[in-house]
Amino acid sequence: MKNSIRYRLYWIINLLVALSLSGCNNITPSITPKSNETVAIMTPTLTIQLSSKPTITHLTVSTRSPTFKAWLTWKMNLIMGIAWSPDNKQIATVAGDALGDTRVHIIDLPALQGSQFSEPAFDAVITFSPDGQELIVGLDELEVWKLSSKTLLGRLPSGLHSLFVTYLPGKSDSFILAKAYPLDGSNSSIEVVSLKSVGSTWESQPFLNVKGFLRAISLNGDGSLLATATKYFDNAKDDGEHVLVWDLASKKQICSIGGMNVAFGTKDTLGTAASDGISIWDAKTCVLIKHFSTGPGYLYNITFTPDGKLLAFASDKNRIVILDANSGEVVQELDGMLDYAEYIRFSPDGRFLATISRNVDPAKTEAVLIVWKVADGSLEPIEITPEFFKPAN
Predict the structure, then answer these.
(1) Torsion angle (degrees, nearest 10) of CA 201, 203, 204, 207
(2) Would you state the pLDDT for residue 63?
(3) CA 212, CA 207: separation in Å to the nearest integer?
(4) For a disulfide at 316, which of 22, 152, 163, 380, Cβ 3.0-4.6 Å?
(5) What is the pLDDT of residue 24?
């Protein structure tokens, strides 16, 4: 069992970030990088002039398809992270009744059954390998699980606050690991981890140091570009959000643009979310393609369907909105969320959308996972109960 104090510190940090973004809290801790550390310099390489702004003046639901309907709903005290299997058939998440007492949960969609496994632990990141054979979960250390047998293959100490794990396209033996800054105020770090022999030889190579608290990373489809979204907490110099685009081959920064969250649409299209709306960029040149004004409120998350045609965003207004990524037309507005949607992920085929929302107030511990499905006929909503998940043999 991992150190419960660290779990609470992790959630305190994330709660402060959420409250500061929602305008409910004016506390901004001062974080100063150590002088002997190498940091990525946040210097814009170009200035974007908006000649026109396609805008959303009223968020009204259109009559166009597809229409997503709530299919599976599951309520727990804690639900953290969403991972889709490459074949669209399974969802993995980490859930439990209390910090330090969570387990990996797998939802098998075709069979409509669930399983749970792993020792009691607190896990913040979760992802399938590209071949769907392994699952990585972790926070202070990463665990690699063999899904067919639900056996632990090995652990990798990763340091404090492993927030994102993204496999390199087509490679099940190496991934990008991103970690938020430790509590001593040093920079966020990104590493490339090679799994030559799980449990015996884990090679981790430093890749980038990025100033600020990492809010999101995104890798484009062919693995040539990496985008990072960071939040600064340095009142003396800068207290804002930045998205950086990196060329992975050269490890050089292509540009710096504004935004508090980021996601690739296609390999050459990048979406950023900021307080003034959604911006779509040419990822290779960092030229602004279009901007959609989404009205007041901060945007916590943004995600695209794999074909880049639809994007969904979550805001602090208890809503998730699905847009046509080309026109900005509102395809659908989803309800049923708690205070804010912490995770939103389209399935690899774009026919499902998984969302996790939770209460900001720590006294009201509750989270809800909803699997939204494209309505292609009769769709009976299903409420998942604890009996749905059977312990692995």
Answers:
(1) -170
(2) 54
(3) 16
(4) 22
(5) 35
Of the candidates 13, 45, 46, 37, the one whose C-alpha atom is nearest the C-alpha of residue 208 is 37
Amino acid at 131: D
Closest CA to 367 of 19, 10, 79, 11: 79
Q: Is residue 1 part of a domain?
A: no
Q: Give the pLDDT of residue 64.
A: 60
CA pair distance 237, 332, nearest whole angstrom: 40
Work out the end-to-end distance of the chain between its first and last CA atoms, rounded to an integer number of angstroms.
Answer: 21
- Cite the beta strand spans of 198-348 per DSSP E: 201-210, 213-219, 225-231, 241-247, 252-258, 261-264, 269-274, 277-282, 287-292, 299-304, 310-315, 319-324, 330-334, 340-346
- pLDDT at position 199 is 54
* Cα 276 from Cα 55, distance rounded (Å): 11
Strands of 90-96's sheet in order across: 78-84, 90-96, 102-108, 113-121, 389-391
Q: Residue 337: what are its φ and ψ, rounded to 5°?
A: -85, 160
| Number of residues assigned to the chain | 393
Distance CA 96, CA 75 (A): 10
> What is the torsional sign of CA 276, 278, 282, 283?
positive
Widest pairwise Cα distance in the chain:
61
Q: Give me the DSSP letters along 311-365.
A: EEEEETTTEEEEEETTT--EEEEE----SEEEEEEE-TTSSEEEEEEE-SSTTS-
Q: What is the pLDDT of residue 31?
A: 23
Q: What is the pLDDT of residue 298?
A: 65
**Contact at 8 Å (CB) between 77 and 368?**
no
Q: pLDDT value at position 50?
A: 42
Low-confidence ranges of the chain (pLDDT < 70): 1-66, 119-124, 139-140, 157-163, 180-186, 196-204, 233-240, 296-300, 316-317, 392-393
Pairing type for strands 389-391 and 113-121 reads parallel
Which residues constitute the domain of residue 282? 46-391
The answer to whether position 194 is within a domain reads: yes
- The CATH number covering residue 130 comes to 2.130.10.10
Asked if the structure places residue 13 within a domain, the reply is no
Per the structure, the count of domains in the chain is 1
Whole-angstrom distance, CA of residue 79 vs CA of residue 367? 6
